[in-house]
Amino acid sequence: MTKLTKLMTTTRRILATVTLCAFLLTATESSKAQPTPHAFLDGAGSNAKSSLIIAALVTAVALIGLGVYFASRHGHSMHGCVEHSPNGLELHTDDGRSFLLLGDTTGIQAGDRVKVRGSRHEKLDGITERPSFVVETLDKDYGSCTVTPSHS
């Protein structure tokens, strides 16, 4: 399992745990005949109840923020021409940048123009100090590159 996969799995577990806790904190009673789910707060003042409600709202906002952050960070795609380099396959984009391709490069061949989906990194500690792109999937292979990309 790669470091990225482990990080995403751990993040999902934490997100699920926090969501469950927030749900349990904000659960309300369905009718007055049933016992109060927050009976331990019956003797507490209104400040304690207000603090609990504020904590639940802050937790909900934090979860939404985390969800947006990971959703926007996860689904990147890039287009470009692929070439061989001494370090492996490189993707050269139309704006002149180049990225070392890591991850699932199955089906990606040098000399082809491709669209890949994954995550972009300026450097990966312990792997490379160069800008890289960790490929999750090959979205489209457009065939041979018509123009040799410029190297940056």
Q: Can you walk through the features of this model?
A:
The chain has 152 residues and is α+β, with helices and mostly antiparallel strands. The chain folds into 2 domains: 3-28 and 35-74; 76-144, OB fold (Dihydrolipoamide Acetyltransferase, E2P) (Beta Barrel), CATH 2.40.50. It contains 2 helices and 5 strands. The protein has helices at 3-26, 46-74, and strands at 76-85, 88-92, 98-103, 112-121, 132-144. It has a 5-stranded mixed barrel with strand order 1-2-3-5-4. Strand 1 (76-85) and strand 2 (88-92) form a beta hairpin. Helix 1 packs antiparallel against helix 2 (46-74). The mean pLDDT is 76.
Per-chain topology:
Blueprint: H1 3-26, H2 46-74, E1 76-85, E2 88-92, E3 98-103, E4 112-121, E5 132-144
Parallel strand pairs: 3-5
Antiparallel strand pairs: 1-2, 1-4, 2-3, 4-5
Helix pairs in contact: 1-2
Main sheet attributes: strand count, strand direction, barrel closure: 5 strands, mixed, barrel
Element string (H = helix, E = strand): HHEEEEE
N/C terminus separation: 32 Å
- How many domains? The number is 2
CATH class of the largest domain: Mainly Beta
CATH topology title of the largest domain: OB fold (Dihydrolipoamide Acetyltransferase, E2P)
Question: Regions with pLDDT < 50 over 5+ consecutive residues?
Answer: none
CATH architecture of the largest domain: Beta Barrel
Strand order of the largest sheet: 1-2-3-5-4
Average the pLDDT over all residues and give the rounded result. 76
Strand residue percentage? 25-35%
- Based on CA atoms alone, the radius of gyration comes out at 24 Å
The helix content, as a percent range, equals 25-40%
